[in-house]
Amino acid sequence: NPRDVGADRIVDAVAAIELYGAPVIVVDFGTATVFDAISRDGVYLGGAIAPGINVAAEALFLNTSQLRRVELVAPKSAIGQNTTHALQSGLVFGNVGIVTELVRRFKAELGQDAKVIGTGGLVRVISRETDIFDAVNPDLTLIGLRLLYEMNQEMNQQRLNPPVPPVTRAAGEH
Asked: Tens digit of pLDDT for each residue in 142-155?
């Protein structure tokens, strides 16, 4: 039911189909990390929602007494030699793991040929650490909004200016 799905997810799906074709998996890194699956026929099937990287980081900082905010970048190694690097490892590489596993499962259901598109404000943090994405497009939502606007403009034009059927004349009329 489209009413149960956030508008941003529909907009991302429209842009992904237009730009990359179907089947496609969209991974949007925002407040939540959102995964959307679009079938070979261009049907929005649903998805998964995980905590976003910033939400997870804030939860750690706010709910523990010893941990402080860190820059969201990958450390040099997965085994952090200090608290800052350990947090960065868990946040960045942990999210790479979430993305990799959910994409693997989505492809098992959708088809191995499904393209994987990364978008959202934090997509580059993750895309630097994995080759799971076929394309990275931070502007996918804006492109989808433009596409939907253009589609609505065309529909409004057709409704306001319906095609006029040609005039046919009987044989012998001028």
From this structure: 999 999 989 888 88
CB of 30 closer than 8 Å to CB of 120: yes
Task: Read off the tokens for 105.
Answer: 């499962």
113 annotated active-site: no
Q: Contact at 8 Å (CB) between 126 and 95?
A: yes
pLDDT digits (tens, 9 = 90+) for 29-77: 999 999 999 999 999 999 999 999 999 989 988 888 788 889 899 999 9
Pairwise CA distance, residues 53 & 171, whole Å: 74
**Burial class (CB within 10 angstroms; exposed 0-12, middle 13-18, buried 19+) of 99:** buried
Active-site residue, from 8, 12, 28, 36? 8
Confidence (pTM): 0.85
Q: Find tokens 């088809």 and name the residue.
A: 111
